[in-house]
What we know:
The N and C termini lie far apart (63 Å). The protein is flat and about 90 Å long. A hairpin with a 5-residue loop joins strand 2 and strand 3. The chain has a 5-stranded mixed sheet with strand order 5-2-3-6-7, sandwiched between helices. Strands 1-4 form a two-stranded antiparallel ribbon. Helix content is 53%, strand content 17%. Helix 6 crosses helix 7. The chain has 10 helices and 7 strands. The protein is α+β, with helices and mostly antiparallel strands. One of its GO terms (molecular function) is GTP binding. It holds the Pfam family GTP_cyclohydroI. InterPro entries: GTP-CH-I_C/QueF, GTP-CH-I_N, GTP_CycHdrlase_I, GTP_CycHdrlase_I_CS, GTP_CycHdrlase_I_dom. It is an enzyme of class 3 (hydrolase).
Amino acid sequence: xxxxxxxxxxxxxxxxxxxxxxxxxxxxxxxxxxxxxxxxxxxxxxxxxxxxxxxxxxxxxxxxxxxxxxxxxxxxxxxxxxxxxxxxxxxxxxxxxxxxxxxxxxxxxxxxxxxxxxxxxxxxxxxxxxxxxxxxxxxxxxxxxxxxxxxxxxxxxxxxxxxxxxxxxxxxxxxxxxxxxxxxxxxxxxxxxxxxxxxxxxxxxxxxxxxxxxxxxxxxxxxxxxxxxxxxxxxxxxxxxxxxxxxxxxxxxxxxxxxxxxxxxxxxxxxxxxxxxxxxxxxxxxx
Length: 287
């Protein structure tokens, strides 16, 4: 028998009314995702069908009730997992903040000593808070020491039947040369060939951030990015090219304003197959 709209006008049990119309809550409900909303609605409609459909046989009612229970379990598990993930991320962030705060006074003192040894008056107005600002700045510029790829991927790896090249190019990169602690900066081009798994594109830029926010040399930075992506995704191949300007060659030393350093790291098929490597290099150079 087809479902009639007249059946929906029948009285619904008080417990179902509370489920469908939670207006009696003392505080507004927290926002939930579209996926969760659909699951809740599906569960509600199943319950409504069971209680408002006298033509259902006992076996059909039992099956519908079982389905509704399973949907409810899925919703509860979804919220539990999300809550645990949020709590873990909060604890991790709090731990890093506490570590930074504990190291700040020593860094501030060190910068004060550096300024004094340079012959500066650290009590003059322009320098009163400079040691503190410099300490906070160096913590930010080296925050990659406290981050891992697992921290930033956050389950953003997806099963996908795609086996063609994926390239994200012109990723801005800033780092500090470990020899003179002056900046080098430029662009990073990343390519990989998936092996049934892809990663959120923004995560590639975040991986660049993890390794570039440390004291670095460009050669090691290039390799670390490639190996990090390879270990996380297990792709068929990874290619990374970095082109950067080094202030240790521009501001001091040889003072060559227009010099650029290019480094590359090729893993998997990019290393083994010249045509695949050539395709990546060609596409990454295109404007």
